[in-house]
Amino acid sequence: MASLSPAAAASPKRLRVYSSAAAADGDSLNGTGSGKRVGTHNGSFHCDEALGCFLIRLTSQFTGADVVRTRDSQILDTLDAVLDVGGVYDPSRHRYDHHQKGFNEVFGHGFNTKLSSAGLVYKHFGKEIIAKELGVSEDHEDVHHLYLAIYKSFVEALDAIDNGINRYDTDQPPKYVNNTHLSSRVGRLNPDWTDPDQSPEKENMAFQQAMMLAGGEFLESVRFHVKSWLPARSIVMECLLSRGNVDPSGEIMVFDRFCPWKLHLFELEEELKIEPLTKYVLYQDERSKSWRVQAVSVAPDRFESRKALPEKWRGMRDDELSWETGIPGCVFVHMSGHWGQQDLRGSFGNGKSCSQMLI
Questions:
Q1: Residue 155 Cα distances to 73, 114, 119, 137, 150, angstroms
Q2: pTM of the shown model
């Protein structure tokens, strides 16, 4: 399994953000940048171009590039890459706008959300960025898994928000307002209308902050997926493939060590075409020094279980539950039937003590 390279924590090379006036000044383009220039629009900014500009500067081709903020088409035509402005999507010329009529590009791999400029940059450069962070080649299997997982958990929401796509197909008004997500926080970095300084310089400084905020959280997501998500996925994969050793039905899994398993289980069952589906997962809870048996839900965001614990066990505790189940050391079964608990000295952990009662 890959791990983060020593360079992963390094920030992008010195960032220069300037406006069209500076871009038109030949002397101002001969500073300390890489010589490459990435363009986006000036005026109010959003999370997608802030993240897109951050991401493209992580690539080998555009590392250390200056960022030019303008809507002047003559200046945009001279730039090495253009994001979120210009009305053109053409990766061969590094044009990554999504506002033009007829644009319907999606990420693929089962994702159908229309892309923003951030999603476009990630689609074309995400594997390179992740491979560089890991210090491995782009064809490493972990790069592909991370490429899809980070799009799903981080980038897709930014694409959807920027394109005005609701999370749910409903005409009902939301029950509450959420202004704490990344897109909202980036939006609040725009200069306030009450600020007497509305200069391009002030705006560019704010955009630079937005790039660092969005980009920093992207890198945090990469690091989480490398340090936590990938190892957990490997553990779930191993236990899923060996579940037949626990019980012949293949419907009980036992983890020899705890990890976040729920989302991985659903994804791996679908990916590996697992039949029959897992009904129960057993694992040690080190905090309470007990074994837990959990009924797997029908979907990641649903409370209903594929097969809840027997109704007659629910709400029982201690000796009464042990007598009813015939399994010593029982502690509790939740009234919903979705989980139960046994003293760590008990025998839940081998899976066989409860398999005949459950399956």
A1: 28, 11, 6, 22, 7
A2: 0.84
DSSP conformational letter for 131: H
pLDDT, tens only, 62-98: 999 999 999 999 999 999 999 999 999 999 999 999 9
Q: Could you tell me whether strands 339-343 and 290-295 are parallel, antiparallel, or unpaired per DSSP bridges?
A: antiparallel
- What angle, rounded to 10 degrees, do the helices at 117-134 and 47-56 form? 40
| Distance set, CA 359 to CA 240, 244, 307, 328 (Å) | 17, 13, 9, 19
**H/E element, 257:** none
What the block records as the tokens of 212 is 């660092």
Sign of CA dihedral 80, 84, 85, 90: positive
Per-residue pLDDT tens digits for 114-162: 999 999 999 999 999 999 999 999 999 999 999 999 999 999 999 999 9
Query: Which amino acid type is present at position 45?
Result: F
Q: How far apart are CA 115 and CA 128, in angstroms?
A: 19
Cβ 18 vs Cβ 28: under 8 Å: yes
- In 3D space, the residue among 301, 297, 291, 305 whose CA is nearest the CA of residue 354 turns out to be 291
